[in-house]
Structures are given as C-alpha cells and as structure tokens.
Specification:
Blueprint lengths: L5 E7 L2 H12 L7 E5 L6 H12 L13 E4 L12 E6 L6 H6 L9 E6 L12 E7 L32 E8 L11 H4 L3
Length: about 200
C-alpha cells in the first residue's frame, strides 16, 4: 500500500471503549467500504467489529468467523440505519494468499456491503482502491518470542493468547488509504480527544 491519506492514534481503556470506537466508525461506513483489522490474539478485533456492527445497524451476535472464514450479518430494517449495508466479516488467518481470498468470492459482495477482514493485511488490499486499516495493540504480550509468533498480525514477535484482560488499555491506529478516505471520518470528540 502507498502512504496513508491520514493516520489517527487512539488509546482506549476498556473493551467498552473499543466497542464504542467501532460503533462510531460503523456509523460512517457505507457500502463498498473495506476495513482491515490487524492485531495479536486478544487485542480486541472481535469487540471492535461488534461495535462496527452496532454502528452499521446489523443483526447482533457477531463472533469471530475463525472456523467458517466468512459470516454475513444483515442490516436490520428496524435498526438505526434501515436500508444500510450488511456486514461481511472475514477471518483470513488461515488464508495464505490473495488467490485464496479470491476463492471466497468477496468481490461479489463488496459493492453492496461493508467488508471487515481480520488478519487481512497483505491479503485483501487488491479488492478495493480505498482501505481503512485498523491496528489494535495491547501493551503487554504474554508469549514474547513463542512458537507461532510469526502468525499474521504478530507484532514484533509478540503473540498474546491471554484474552481475559478485556479492560486493559489498547492503542488503536486507524489509517485511511485511497480516495474514499481522502479525509478523516468524523468521530465523536470524546474519541478523537485522546489521539
């Protein structure tokens, strides 16, 4: 990817704040948007996506699509954004190439949905000329240098399997690429104030 149009660094103190940030971003997403989520295990990718789903107004019950690869969450006609886009939630952890991404046919739904891809960096950028890249970091890693640290999203050799610390701080980096993200999305002042 080329250089981002903009970059925003936020610190959230809890899973609730991670969810709220996702909801704020979800409220500005539209059909055709591609969001790439990167972060070690337990960083809050699914919590963030649950917030995105809330902001988009899709059916609740978002869980990681690790074993099915793709889950579709339909927009609710009586939700906050009736007629808005559905959410396609992808886990690309076990996919090793752009060709394997192409095999799951995301390009057929890209124009009419918001597509969120966990572990997607380096695998899905070819699907859109505009990408919102979201990277979540925990301050502590429990398995520094452990086997498996080279897994997608492992930052600096740290792969964290401890998911019980939902209320520890996270740093969330958001980068906008391409014409869709020429300008930074409007976020509530409470979220932008800690950047």
């Amino acid at each position: 990817m080329s250089d981002p149009q903009w970059e925003l660094s936020l610190t959230v103190q809890s899973a609730e704040e991670t969810h709220a940030l996702g909801a704020a971003l979800g409220a500005v997403l539209d059909s055709g948007d591609l969001v790439i989520l990167t972060g070690e295990l337990g960083a809050g990718k699914t919590t963030f996506t649950q917030g995105l789903g809330e902001g988009l107004g899709v059916r609740a019950g978002i869980i990681s699509p690790t074993f099915v690869l793709v889950r579709i969450h339909p927009n609710l006609p009586d939700g906050p954004r009736p007629g808005g886009p559905d959410l396609v939630h992808v886990d690309a952890y076990r996919l090793e190439s752009a060709a394997e991404i192409d095999d799951i046919d995301l390009e057929n739904t890209m124009d009419s949905t918001v597509t969120v891809v966990e572990w997607g960096r380096g695998r899905v950028e070819h699907l859109s000329d505009s990408v919102l890249d979201v990277e979540l970091h925990r301050p502590l890693g429990s398995l520094s240098g452990a086997a498996g640290a080279s897994a997608p999203g492992a930052a600096d050799g740290v792969l964290d399997f401890d998911t019980d610390d939902d209320d520890e701080p996270r740093t969330i980096m958001i980068r906008g690429y391409g014409p869709r993200w020429a300008e930074q999305p409007l976020l509530p002042a409470a979220l932008k104030g800690n950047s």
